UniProtKB/TrEMBL annotation:
Family annotation (Pfam families): Med11
Keywords recorded for this protein, A-Z: Activator, Nucleus, Transcription, Transcription regulation
Subunit structure and binding partners: Component of the Mediator complex.
Record bears the keyword Transcription: yes
Principal localisation: nucleus
GO cellular component term of the entry, any: mediator complex
One GO molecular-function entry: transcription coregulator activity
Gene designation: MED11
Function according to Swiss-Prot or TrEMBL: Component of the Mediator complex, a coactivator involved in the regulated transcription of nearly all RNA polymerase II-dependent genes. Mediator functions as a bridge to convey information from gene-specific regulatory proteins to the basal RNA polymerase II transcription machinery. Mediator is recruited to promoters by direct interactions with regulatory proteins and serves as a scaffold for the assembly of a functional pre-initiation complex with RNA polymerase II and the general transcription factors.
UniProt name for this protein: Mediator of RNA polymerase II transcription subunit 11
InterPro entries: Mediator_Med11
Location(s) in or outside the cell: Nucleus
Length: 142
């Protein structure tokens, strides 16, 4: 069996995990292009007008170029966000299904919200304990 055929099922379809990894690789390439686009746009903003050209025409040309780069930038941001959201949604959905041996991608849901809630309640308990100690101290002084 060739290395490429190991990712194709009996019906000739590519495995879900393989398609998702390829899609994420495309998103990574778009991320690199996004950074390059931002750098190019910033370099246009820092260019100074040459002395021998019409300044107004130079500014218009630069503004049009910048506008095109800005449109490409926001289009890339949109594409990258869509890819990441769809994969995050897929992984979240897969993690919510009961544990099974046929899961391809292990995924743990975030517990940050529970951790923050615990942190808040711990702080509240400490504050209440301090207040009780203050009340006891006042009561003992009287």
């Amino acid at each position: 069996m060739s290395a490429q055929n190991q990712y194709i099922d009996v019906k000739g379809h590519m495995a879900e995990s393989t398609m998702r990894i390829k899609d994420l690789a495309q998103a990574e390439k778009k991320l690199v292009l996004l950074i390059e686009t931002a750098a190019e746009a910033l370099s246009i903003l820092s260019d100074e007008a040459p002395n021998d050209e019409n300044t107004d025409q130079f500014v218009r040309d630069r503004a049009m170029t910048f506008r095109g780069l800005a449109e490409r930038y926001f289009s890339l941001v949109n594409d990258i966000q869509f890819a990441l959201r769809s994969h995050t949604h897929y992984l979240t959905k897969e993690a919510s299904i009961t544990s099974s041996a046929n899961k391809i991608i292990p995924f743990k849901t975030s517990v940050l919200d529970q951790y923050k809630e615990l942190e808040i309640w711990t702080s509240a308990i400490e504050t209440v304990s301090q207040r009780i100690a203050e009340i006891k101290k006042i009561a003992q002084e009287q």
